[in-house]
Specification:
Strand order of the largest sheet: 3-1-2-4-5-6-7-8-9
Bound molecules: iron/sulfur cluster
Largest sheet: 9 strands, mixed
Oligomer: single chain
Strand content: 15-25%
Helix content: 25-40%
Order of helices and strands: EEEHEHEEHEHHEHEH
Distance between the termini: 24 Å
Structural class: alpha/beta
Shape: globular
Length: about 210
């Protein structure tokens, strides 16, 4: 069984897939506690649902793109079986992971969107850096949520040290929602000379930051 917070259909709000119709499977629970977390409601509760029932709900929504997210989706052992089943059925599968759990045993047909936690998150020390070595340049993306200048300096250092511009399909710089210094971040990115991209969370612009199930 899987512990599931919600399953819904919406528009993909992040990554290079932003704007695409997508079914989201949001699993319950996360071992991390990022100070700016926008999905604390996933930490507890949820509903126990079999993989078969999750598959049926996903099928009913009719999207070919499916994201397995959380919480931390990879913290549940059964999530790996769900991902395999989705891939077997021909879905394009995205995994949004916080970077604490190893991605080693994720079905290779799924595409990884890997967070690297910056210092202001309070969880930098829990990054599982071998995940960066597993990124594939044609499939996987890496994301830094940036709260301040210190986070930006940290992100630049990790991008250079792990050669992420060549190792990932995209390097995403995502400002913490509502931090009020988007022009500064845009300037840091544009003047960096790096092959990276700024991303804003499309779903929060459409439905607001508090909306659930979108
Ligand atoms: S990893 Fe994601 S879900 Fe977990 S605390 Fe951090 S932002 Fe929240």
């Amino acid at each position: 069984m899987l512990r599931v917070t919600e399953i819904f259909r919406s528009i993909q709000g992040e990554s290079t897939h932003a704007g695409r119709p997508c079914t989201f499977v949001r699993l319950t629970g996360c071992p991390m506690r990022c100070v700016w977390c926008d999905s604390e409601y996933t930490f507890t509760g949820g509903e126990s649902i079999s993989v078969d029932d999750v598959m049926a709900k996903v099928k009913a929504y009719g999207c070919r793109l499916v994201e397995v997210t959380g919480g931390e989706p990879l913290a549940q052992r059964e999530a790996f079986r769900l991902i395999q089943r989705l891939c077997d059925d021909g879905y394009e599968v995205l995994i949004e992971t916080g970077g604490y759990v190893s991605t080693e045993h994720v079905d290779p047909r799924a595409k990884i969107i890997l967070d690297v936690k910056c210092p202001a998150s309070g969880e930098e020390g829990r990054n599982h850096y071998p995940n960066l070595d597993r990124l594939r340049p044609d499939l996987d993306e890496v994301k830094f949520v940036v709260a301040d200048r210190g986070d930006w300096d940290y992100a630049k250092d990790v991008i250079e040290r792990y050669d992420l511009e060549n190792r990932a399909r995209a390097v995403l710089i995502s400002p913490v929602w509502g931090n009020g210094f988007l022009p500064e971040i845009a300037d840091w990115i544009s003047s960096s000379g790096m092959n990276i991209r700024m991303q804003l969370q499309l779903h929060k612009q459409i439905w607001g930051p508090e909306a659930r199930g979108v």
